[in-house]
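Supplementary material to the annual report.
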Amino acid sequence: MGNVNRAILRGMFVMLLVICAALLAACAGNGDQGAAVDVTPKQVLLGFSQLGSESAWRLGNTKSIQDAAKRAGVDLMYENAEQKQEKQIKAIRSFIAYRVDVIAFSPIVEGGWDNVLTEARDAGIPVLITDRRIKTVDESLITGFVGSDFYEEGRKAGQFVLQKTSGESHVNIVEISGTIDSTPMRQRGAGFRSVLAGDDRFTILESVSGDFLRSKGKECMQALLAKYQDINVLYSHNDSMTLGALEAIQAAGLTPGKDIVIVTVDGEQAAIDLLKAGQINCVVECTPLFGDKIMELTKKLAAGESIPRDTYSEEKVFTEFDADLMDLPKREY
Ligand code: AHR
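Predicted assembly:
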């Protein structure tokens, strides 16, 4: 073997040694990292499908949930369905594909959820219903509900009408209801009627749906005013529609709160301001601020614990008769 070949071989041998040393060092490094156990607790991942952004109430609800998730250290996958059930179903399917720990959603309407919720159950993901309810033959598809007692809200509205009109021989009522087939629409209507039923002084002239939207509340009230000259009470299922209806009443030359008694549900700041100003007579509170409760229940479900079937928010009624009306603190929505 010549000198040149020997020199080449030596060079290759040295290079091999360098490569081996580098590989050993890399392996030793990896070994150290692998030996360290990751003790960071796994964050709970919650998929939440909001139904839309139709009102100040809904915006307050979304903010409450997003803020609460941050406070609780829950990872939130948030989807807004913009008032379309198909979009909510699609969002729930994406949460299942993503294998979130818990799914929560506020169902826009009550029917049509069984298939997608069966898929969630088959994937072993617990589902929490928030704000509104669903109609299902299989109650095991959901683990629980958090939100308001809408029937009770309707009853409170009816009780105010009874109080306000005591002494009147006949009372004509118009109702602007929420989204058809939604829980608040059904239950606020039923609770209200349960209080007035059997008292023939009351006539519900007509009930129309304003879909919880301000613009539709105005349109509905315009149509009602054109049809009936003797409306005594407006019962509106949310503040957004009420604000629209008040515009129509004023445009017709009438004074809301005086010519027509106004009863509304939610308790947005704008409605409380109008109650103080005498243009609304009664505000039944429906709070959107249950984000913290959702996070508490989500963590329990992710830990495999059971939760109560129904968790209701505490709610008040604000009326023109309240002695402390002017001292009401600022609202969060
Ligand atoms: O489901 C709750 C209702 O939905 C609120 O009363 C209303 O403002 C919203 O659109």
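The pocket of alpha-L-arabinofuranose is lined by residues 54-55, 57-58, 131-132, 184, 212, 238, 240, 265-266, 286 (CB under 6 Å).
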